[in-house]
Amino acid sequence: MAAGRATLIALTALAPVSWGTTYAVTTEFLPPGRPLFTGLMRALPAGLVLLALVRVLPRGAWWWRASVLGALNIGAFFPLLFLAAYRLPGGMAAVVGSAGPLFVVALSALLLGQRPTARTVLTGVVAASGVSLVVLRAAGALDLVGVLAALASTASMSVGTVLTQRWGRPEGVGPLALAGWQLTAGGLLIAPLALLAEGAPPALDAPAAGGYVYLALANTAVAYWLWFRGIGHLSATQVTFLGPLSPLTAAVVGWAALGEALTPPQVAGMALAFGATVAGQIGRGPGAGATASFAPRGAKVARSAVAAPEGDAQPDSSREPVRQPRAMDRSMRATVARGSSTSTTRRS
Q1: Is the CB of residue 78 less than 8 Å from the CB of residue 43?
Q2: Residue 115 class from Cβ within 10 Å (0-12 exposed, 13-18 middle, 19+ buried)?
Q3: What is the rounded distance in angstroms from the CA atom of residue 172 to the CA atom of residue 99?
Q4: Residue 348: how many CB atoms within 10 A of its CB?
Q5: What span, in angstroms and rounded, lies between the C-alpha atoms of 17 and 22?
Q6: How far is CA 59 from CA 4, 165, 169, in A?
Q7: For residue 183, what pLDDT is reported?
Q8: pLDDT of residue 106
Q9: Rg (CA), the chain
Q10: How much of the chain exceeds pLDDT 70, in percent?
Q11: 79-97 confidence digits (pLDDT tens)
Q12: Exposed/middle/buried for residue 288 (C-beta within 10 Å: 0-12, 13-18, 19+)
């Protein structure tokens, strides 16, 4: 059982590791100054490919839920992320993004009834401090728009992560379909923004085309499938503590492939952030149980993440419905400000 849980965590961690390669691919292969077009090329082709594979569309309330999640996790997150990265110096967007676990801790208490512990908050602070040492550089005055965009992107994906766990998935629908719905909805939201702000798509050479194929398939379609799969079986806080792996991967790729130097403070920061990531996974039960207890009335009990982490679809109707606690009625009326998050800088 422990081995199955470790495998699930490792597979989920591949998502932020993949996102950590985004910066190198963008700077080395893609046209400069086209953040919205790049976000569009990451999201929409990936979503359409996944929809073609699963051939499942949302039904009923899941049309608006998929649209909301797609806006939070993709449509708002991608543009705000790149806006922050272009306007903030020295990795400051990554530092703001590393506060994502703390956002999720607070939102999980509000929406999922998961009480934060001192250890969780301390782990989040250590992770943010480690990322700061890795990516922060000396810089002049900070750009207010960039700071607000970084905060909004962090909040956006944090809200999306918690709502993804709270709403779960429709019965019989797996994380592949859920990822396809969100990526398609987010891509459709970005498309008109890219056209209005950046004009017609740029001409692409072979390296740029290859870069976009990599971003759409491995970096987005596969990575978001693994991410949403992890959210379905682990706690939202546990998943978001994997986020610091993205800037750490970006730093390692920059050192190994781009010849960027790593200073002793950066190495120390990497150790701190990685240690916090590991600490965020220790001593936590699978999130399936927590999610099921806050499932909508009539929902079916999800399988344990430990018992069947590879499963794509949810269980059949032979499961008994979960009895809903009274506290759920109050938490469902809680209002969440729609902001804009796990990811980090352009490196996410």
Answers
A1: yes
A2: exposed
A3: 34
A4: 29
A5: 10
A6: 32, 18, 11
A7: 96
A8: 85
A9: 19
A10: 76
A11: 887 777 777 654 566 666 7
A12: buried
Contact 107, 226 (CB under 8 A): no
What gap in Å lies between CA 266 and CA 248, rounded to an integer?
10
What whole-number distance in Å separates Cα of residue 83 and Cα of residue 34?
10
At 184, is the pLDDT very low, low, confident or very high (cuts 50, 70, 90)? very high
- The burial class, CB within 10 Å (0-12 / 13-18 / 19+), for 11 is middle
CA-based nearest residue to 288, from 262, 270, 274, 307 = 307
Return the SS3 of 346: coil
As given in the structure block, the two tokens for residue 165 are: 């766990």
Residue by residue, DSSP assigns 197-253 as HH-SPPP--HHHHHHHHHHHIIIIIIHHHHHHHHHHHS-HHHHHTTTTHHHHHHHHH
> Residue 209 corresponds to which amino acid?
A
Spell out a b/e string for 214-232, using b for 16 or more CB atoms within 10 Å of the CB, else e.
Answer: bbbeebbbbbbbbbbbbbb
